[in-house]
Structure to design on (417 residues):
């Protein structure tokens, strides 16, 4: 069968001496399931969905796909690789490929011409063509090589053969993963609901016994600044001007350009995101290493104080049933064989005065409000102190807007043992 210019579709013979026999060049047998002769398993899978509708949120052929979700779905079906469902996060994966070295199955990335953000991903089919989910046509194959529209937006290409996982063996990450899917809750500090800094605080305390303050801008002031190229698993990554000015979001670096964090956007839960996500690259503020902020429990006074964490506040309390501020300090020192006066103003007369810059774990620090409030210094700017609302707790007075301004004095006692 052939389409003739003059007669339309006709049946023509290839007998010797006929018009078409004299012009015959050769023949190809096409596989109806693989009309493009494609070898790439990714493309074989992608071709199955030509004509599937576009959807901004869909994740299956029945729901439809956007461009990134389409790429995600094909990788899962063809290679059992779990790639993220966002174009800018997908950019973190694989090997950079120059345009002239493209092979079928490579992933193409395109940007928004105004913002420069990655917005679209596609599979390279070969011969200048690509397959992607178009907002107007659904899954379709188009020419891009000679397209001024697509070339002006071309961001780069990747060859993705593996997806490297986060460091699940690290004790901090192992602890963080327990709470994947926990809901986001403003000011939340427990698995029933976390905000971003409540999550980092909770995980560090459970995994490493490190007590972080409760706000991202306070955590930002701790530890050691780290360059991007030196980032390690467990470092805190910070972002600014997200939902409010200044440092406003924090997560835990989990390895391979990914972080675990309590996100207030999207599904509003604890989840894993790539740092290449457009939003986080725009809002990135810096990195802090805080794993060294451990509490020296080998010091008897410090150990006794830590053992009493979460004992409730009680007015006039001097026992583990409940403490007031001075009752707590008096009790702790009593456990190591040292008697102190009942109230903070009298404790100020004990031992020798210590400059703030010379503080050591086990020293008594004093704060002046309507009365003299004693606390036990446990290192790295942290004190064990009694809060009316939380009982015995660890707080970093150096970064606290309440405690730092009312710092008053410190004393060192001659403690044996």
């Amino acid at each position: 069968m052939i389409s003739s210019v003059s007669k339309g579709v006709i049946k023509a013979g290839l007998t010797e001496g006929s018009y078409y026999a004299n012009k015959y060049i050769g023949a190809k047998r096409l596989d109806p399931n693989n009309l493009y002769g494609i070898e790439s398993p990714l493309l074989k899978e992608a071709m199955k969905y030509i004509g599937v509708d576009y959807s901004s949120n869909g994740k299956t052929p029945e729901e439809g796909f956007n461009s990134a979700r389409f790429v995600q779905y094909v990788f899962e079906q063809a290679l059992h690789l779990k790639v993220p469902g966002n174009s800018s996060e997908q950019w973190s994966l694989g090997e950079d490929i120059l345009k002239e070295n493209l092979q079928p199955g490579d992933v193409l990335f395109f940007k928004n011409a105004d913002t420069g953000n990655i917005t679209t991903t596609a599979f390279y089919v070969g011969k200048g063509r690509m397959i992607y989910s178009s907002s107007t046509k659904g899954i379709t194959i188009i020419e891009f090589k000679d397209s001024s529209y697509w070339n002006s937006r071309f961001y780069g290409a990747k060859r993705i053969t593996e997806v490297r996982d986060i460091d699940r063996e690290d004790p901090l990450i192992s602890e963080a993963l327990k709470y994947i899917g926990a809901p986001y809750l403003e000011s939340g500090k427990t698995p029933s609901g976390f905000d971003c800094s409540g999550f980092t605080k909770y995980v560090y305390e459970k995994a490493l016994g490190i007590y972080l303050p409760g706000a991202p801008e306070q955590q930002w002031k701790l530890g050691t600044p780290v360059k991007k190229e030196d980032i390690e698993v467990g470092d805190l990554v910070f972002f600014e001007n997200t939902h409010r000015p200044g440092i406003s979001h924090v997560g835990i670096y989990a390895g391979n350009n990914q972080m675990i964090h309590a996100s207030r956007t999207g599904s509003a839960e604890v989840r894993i995101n790539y740092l290449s996500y457009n939003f986080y690259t725009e809002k990135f503020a810096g990195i802090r290493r805080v794993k060294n902020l451990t509490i020296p429990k080998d010091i008897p006074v410090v150990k006794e104080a830590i053992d009493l964490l979460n004992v409730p506040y009680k007015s006039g309390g001097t026992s583990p049933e409940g403490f007031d501020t001075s009752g707590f300090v008096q009790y702790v020192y009593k456990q190591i064989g040292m008697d102190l006066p009942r109230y903070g103003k009298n404790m100020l007369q004990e031992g020798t005065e210590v400059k703030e810059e010379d503080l050591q774990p086990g020293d008594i620090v004093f704060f002046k409000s309507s009365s003299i409030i004693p606390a036990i210094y446990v290192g790295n700017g942290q004190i064990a102190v009694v809060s009316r609302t939380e009982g015995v707790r660890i707080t970093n007075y150096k970064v606290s807007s309440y405690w730092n301004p009312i710092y008053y004095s410190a004393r060192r006692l001659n403690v044996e043992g």
